[in-house]
Write a structure and sequence with these properties.
The chain is an alpha+beta fold and 165 residues long. The chain has a single domain, classed as ph1033 like fold (Roll). The protein is globular and about 40 Å long.
Length: 165
């Protein structure tokens, strides 16, 4: 029983998610994820329902807004859990009180250095998820914190990350 939006059936393993971060957060906050061995991913409390849907085997693709690029891929290794330990602290005063308590454990698949990020523009034009935005504004699809994407879109992104250029 699918969602009707091109996503895989919820009972099947391997959903794919896009987690969005600004350049500042990627450098400052993302660094904390890397410093912890790329073992945990937190989401804002307003994304609890999405975090609850994440399962071991799901993939997380990292997108950096200021660069309009993909930065890597991780695999979810645990069910969702809540934890208020302040790991990631936002530089934005309005968001600083939310310690990204909706969490899953992860392991890295492909983690790119800053100079190897893969531009999203060409990929976004081919993505079913981004198709509701005009072709010239496809990267607007990546505004927000976390998105579930169709199966084929994950394949496009992974192929681009594995063989940039």
């Amino acid at each position: 029983m699918g969602s009707g939006r091109g996503h895989r059936e919820r009972g099947r393993p391997g959903e794919a998610w896009i987690v969005v971060s600004s350049v500042d957060n990627q450098q400052r906050i993302g660094r904390r994820t890397v410093d912890r061995g790329f073992t945990i991913q937190g989401l804002k409390s307003r994304h609890r329902k999405k975090a609850e849907q994440m399962r071991p085997g799901d993939k997380i693709v990292y997108y950096v807004t200021g660069r309009k690029a993909f930065a890597g891929i991780a695999t979810v290794t645990s069910p969702y859990f809540e934890d208020s330990e302040p790991i990631w602290v936002s530089g934005n005063a309005k968001k600083a009180g939310d310690p990204d308590p909706e969490r899953v454990r992860i392991e890295p698949d492909l983690a790119l250095s800053d100079d190897a990020f893969v531009p999203a523009e060409g990929i976004a034009r081919k993505m079913a998820y981004a198709s509701k935005w005009l072709a010239e504004h496809g990267t607007l699809a990546f505004q927000g914190n976390v998105h579930l994407m169709p199966e084929g879109d994950y394949g496009l992104i992974r192929a681009a990350i594995e063989s940039p250029g």
